[in-house]
Amino acid sequence: MTDMPIYMHFLYATIATVGFSVFFNIPKSALIPAGLTGGIGWGFYYYLINTTNNDILSNFLAAALVALISEVLARKLKYPAILFVIPGIIPLVPGLGMYNTMLYLVQSNYELAISKGANVLFVGGAISLGILVITSLARTLSIVSLAKMHKNK
Questions:
Q1: pLDDT band at residue 144 under the 50/70/90 scheme
Q2: What does the alpha-carbon distance between residue 126 and residue 132 come to, in Å, rounded to a whole number?
Q3: CA–CA distance, 15 with 17 (Å, rounded to integer)
Q4: What is the predicted pLDDT for the residue at 150?
Q5: pTM
Q6: Which bin fits 59, alpha (ψ -120 to 50), beta or left (φ > 0)?
Q7: pLDDT exceeds 90 at position 52
Q8: Mind giving me the DSSP string for 37-103?
């Protein structure tokens, strides 16, 4: 990683997330919350990767935090959670790892390509699982609360 302070990482990730949010045609009132979601997710990832030095765990926990923030924002702002999740995970996507995998394949360096490609797949899976766990938990809690309301009537 770089020697930039964590607040600069947060700022740049927020700006990048807002840019992707505009690209995805997110409503104007949701641009800043979506950007903050991506910035917080990246800042948390950056902190974890420097603390634990475990790329997969850091991505899993950061994606779970992004999904949690997205679920909260969805309820507060009355938008679908996907409007915040997709832009929020953009900073976490291992683009450099994918590029390096392809570069090693083109250069016929198959050992490095397999190693880097496997890491990219695990990171992608960790991001997916982080979102899946929180989204499933939120949906389960929503169903349980609706069942309680229906039972009390």
A1: confident
A2: 10
A3: 5
A4: 80
A5: 0.91
A6: alpha
A7: yes
A8: HHHHHHHHHHHHHHHH--HHHHHHHHHHHHHHHHHHHHHHHTS-THHHHHHHHGGGS-HHHHHHHHH
DSSP 143: H
pLDDT (tens digit, 9 = 90+) per residue, 93-112?
999 999 999 999 999 999 99
SS3 24: coil
Q: Is residue 83 within 8 Å of residue 26, measured between CB atoms?
A: yes
Helix (H/G/I), strand (E/B), else coil: 25: coil
Structure tokens belonging to residue 18: 């807002």
Q: How far apart are CA 139 and CA 125, in angstroms?
A: 21
Residue with tokens 């679908």: 80
Question: Residue 44, exposed/middle/buried by CB under 10 A (0-12, 13-18, 19+)?
Answer: buried
**What is the b/e burial string over 82-99, where b = at least 16 CB atoms within 10 angstroms of the residue's CB?**
ebbbbbbbbbbebeebbe
